[in-house]
Specification:
The complex is a heterodimer of chains A (255) and B (308). With 255 residues, chain A is mostly helical. Chain A is built from eleven helices and no strands. The model of chain A has no long low-confidence stretch (mean pLDDT 93). The chains are: A mainly alpha (255), B alpha/beta (308).
């Protein structure tokens, strides 16, 4: 048995006890956004402009929200739970007394996050499809780029959490990092709407690549830089984030 | 080569400028219960972490079960058990689930772990709590579960870092009894403690650590013989009168230790010394005669008491 799967198994078992509340809370938020922004604000947008990027606002928004939800799940699951594992509940030190290594912990964690993002994304797609915001099959295909998006954040946030002593840094990360990305990375509007000087900044944010990739898969369109470029950037970010997390875990826990 | 299970030579651990363990030497033999006695901050936990291959050594050499912790960590850890100082159980899981998950960390098959869970719960007397959430257990029960968890891989060597700190006396005795049984089953134990009675109860041999160094080594009884007298007479005087009384005590005992609240007289026969003191007109408000303990050894070697 691959050693990192042992950590994955633990997360799965813990999740078995809490999955109901967790699934509910991870889909309720995007669901409200879809209704409020996609349907009600969307009808106003469509009346004025006849849709965005050739589709209705709801159809434009739905895949963007899928990527943004994946980001929030990937980041959230790698924030407080990781700090708890290191410090408050000490799950990681306990596991490191077994044959597992810091690498096993990080890979097991990220594999679990991928599962969680996939789960939340599939539920989201089912709801969005029922609302007519997404075609079901293309929406389910878009779960793949959504998982890449979630993981691109999970690696870095895991690293960041492992540098912290308390949760204040995490609150700030979400307030000043995740929230602005959520608002300005092409989820709610095309980044061509941004002032020209801001556009290149959006290219640097992982979420923008995730949104464009997810949207192009869901809508069957070609993303700005091509599927392969966006996917490669996300995969590169996942690898870099994971490597930084392993290094930080070792620095923190193997002392 | 001796058949030592753990061999440390010049073992040193530094954190930046701070030296936590300063070139210590020791050997732990197969089947014995070996203790590290010392106050908080003496370097006991750092030593345990190095033995458990979760902390790299700074210099010197260390071999555990004939393995090098630096390069053979996973194999080494698969053959030992660790009871950490702080509880690290999965509080949202049940007692049995904790053991299952921990067994899985070691790569054991579920079919192997299942009967072990029942055996271990019997052993630590938690069978009634099998499906209880860990959150709901008392401190003593959590410690016992942690011990059960550390045994899930049937380790050859068990490392316990202050296993009874924070427990009530009854819970401590239950724990000591279990550890004693493990020892009888041939498991080698390494225990750190700052309780002298724990060291005396559990350990065949121990080292006394203070300020990152080993200051004495031997069997508890031998250490007492070597470094202390057979008995101790403790006297308490009314506040403010200790000094004048001390003047009159000179020559009564082989050695005298003056603590803020009492005076310890080291003597082969405490009752005889007491009689003599009373004959000199010394009237303490309270006095106790007792056998010498490791605390006295520590006091003599360092001039400080163990638990401060």
């Amino acid at each position: 048995m691959n050693t990192s799967l042992r950590m994955y198994e633990r997360s799965a078992r813990v999740y078995k006890g809490v999955w109901r509340g967790s699934v509910f809370s991870s889909f309720v938020n995007p669901f409200l956004y879809l209704i409020a922004m996609g349907m009600f604000l969307g009808s106003l947008v469509d009346e004025q402009t006849g849709g965005v990027a050739g589709v209705s606002y709801l159809e434009f928004l739905a895949p963007g929200l899928l990527a943004a939800t994946a980001m929030q799940t990937g980041a959230g699951d790698s924030a407080w739970p990781v700090l708890a594992g290191i410090k408050w509940q000490r799950t990681y030190p306990a596991a490191l007394a077994s044959p597992l290594t810091t690498r096993d912990l990080v890979i097991g964690h990220l594999a679990w996050v991928a599962t969680r993002v996939a789960l939340v994304s599939v539920i989201y797609v089912l709801v969005a499809a029922a609302l007519g915001a997404m075609p079901l099959i293309d929406g389910l295909l878009a779960v793949i780029p959504a998982v890449l998006t979630g993981l691109a954040f999970a690696g870095f946030v895991t690293w960041f959490s492992a540098t912290l002593e308390d949760g204040i840094g995490l609150t700030n990360l979400f307030r000043f990092g995740i929230m602005p990305l959520f608002l300005f990375s092409g989820t709610f509007f095309e980044i061509s709407q941004l002032p020209d000087w801001m556009e290149p900044i959006a290219y640097l944010t992982p979420l923008w690549h995730g949104v464009e990739l997810t949207r192009s898969v869901a809508l069957g369109t070609e993303p700005p830089f091509g599927l392969l470029v966006h996917a490669s950037i996300l995969i590169a970010l996942i690898i870099i984030g994971a490597a930084m997390a392993v290094r930080q875990f070792r620095k923190r826990l193997y002392v | 080569m001796s058949d030592a299970l753990v061999t440390a030579h010049d073992l040193t651990k530094r954190f930046g400028d701070f030296t936590a363990v300063d070139s210590i030497d020791f050997e732990v033999q197969q089947g014995e219960a070996f203790g590290f006695l010392g106050p908080n901050g003496a370097g006991k936990s750092s030593t345990m972490r190095m033995i458990g291959a979760v902390s790299p050594i700074t210099s010197g050499s260390l071999s555990v079960l004939g393995l090098d912790p630096a390069t053979q960590g996973p194999e080494l850890r698969s053959r030992i058990g660790v009871v950490p100082q702080e509880d690290s159980l999965d509080v949202e899981l049940t007692v049995a689930e904790n053991l299952m998950i921990y067994g899985r960390y070691f790569g054991l098959a579920r079919s192997v772990i299942r009967p072990r869970i029942e055996e271990l719960l019997d052993f630590v007397q938690l069978n009634g709590k099998r499906d209880e959430k860990v959150d709901k257990l008392s401190g003593g029960m959590k410690r016992r579960l942690t011990i059960a968890r550390s045994l899930i891989n049937q380790p050859e060597l068990l490392i316990l870092d202050e296993p009874t700190t924070g427990l009530d006396p009854q819970a401590r005795h239950v724990l000591w009894d279990r550890l004693y049984r493990l020892k009888q089953d041939g498991v080698t134990l390494i225990v750190t403690t700052h309780y002298m009675d724990e060291a005396e109860q559990l350990c065949d041999r121990l080292v006394v650590m203070d300020q990152a160094q080993i200051v004495a080594e031997g069997a508890p009884a031998d250490l007492i013989v070597q470094h202390s007298t057979r008995e101790v007479l403790e006297m308490r005087f009314p506040p403010g009168t200790q000094e004048e009384n001390i003047a009159q005590l000179s020559g009564l005992a082989e050695r005298m230790e003056i603590l803020p609240d009492r005076v310890l007289l080291y003597t082969p026969d405490a009752d005889a010394t007491s009689t003599e003191a009373h004959a000199r007109g010394i009237r303490p408000v309270a006095q106790v005669s007792r056998r010498s303990s490791l605390e006295d050894v520590f006091l003599k070697l360092t001039g400080r008491s163990l638990v401060e």
